[in-house]
Structures are given as structure tokens and as C-alpha cells.
Amino acid sequence: MAKQITAAPAAAKPSAMLWVDALLGWLLPGAGHLSRGFRRQGWIALFVIVPIFSLGLVLSDFEAVSRDLHPYAFWAELGFAGATLPLLKIDPAANKVLPDHQSITNPVPGWDVQSRGWDLDVSSWSDTGVLFCCVAGLLNLLALFDLLDRSLSPRRAVRTGQATPAGNSA
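RESULT FIELD:
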């Protein structure tokens, strides 16, 4: 006789709370999974995504999260909003590399990029760090899609035996 187990953690909370849990997961990877009762997936997301993002920040000397220096990578890093948005407000990279808090799209008049040299203040591991932060942000978006999928389409798992389409064992 086959025993069927329903996905009880997702069914325990109303669907209106799903968006709150998704927001929690966007701010801190795995928090949405933990809140919905998917403990294993939540801890895996937390212990994989946060160290990858942190390592990317360290490798790039906190330059990775800069909308001025990396305008396209910023959108991938935004998948982990809990770390990206506060660092964007501080933006230590733009203050260190760009004079007078100017952006690349609005440079200081008369400032010659070739004579000052961009690579003098940029870490040699900067590109690797930016890549790590982008991967962490995209992994968190993938984790959020997993949370939505698990919560909106609960599946039935069969523990032992074979089940017919009606759910009765043959």
C-alpha cells in the first residue's frame, strides 16, 4: 500500500503571506524558505549564496556593488537586495575611484582617464569579485523562483510502492 505525503509546509500558510516570504527571501537568501517551512532548502540557500556574495565583495575591495562602475552587473547583483541596496547607498568604490563623486556617465570636465589610470586604484581580483556577486544575486533569484514554485504548486510524493493515477496502490 502506498503512502502519500502532501507538501504540508506550503499549505499551512495563506498565499497572501507568500509575497511577504518572497520579500524576506529577496532581502536575505533562504529566509523565505525558512519562513514557509522548507528548512533544508532555506539553510542551503543561506549557506551558499551569502558566502559567495561576501567573497565577491572581499575580492573586489567592495567595488563590486557600484552602479557607476558596473552598471550592467548591478542588475544581476540586485537579486540579493539585502546586501546590494545598503552598499549601493554607501558606494565606497565610486568615492575611491571617481573624483568628486561623479559617475562615469557624468565625468568631471577635463579629467583625463588615460593619464590618471583607472587600474591604479582597482584590485587585480576585481572582475572575479564582480562575477561572484553577480552569480550570488542570480542564484538568489533562482531560489526565489524555487520558493514560488514550491508554494504555488504543491506536489504529492509517493514514499513506497507504485500508485495509479487515482492515487490507490495497484
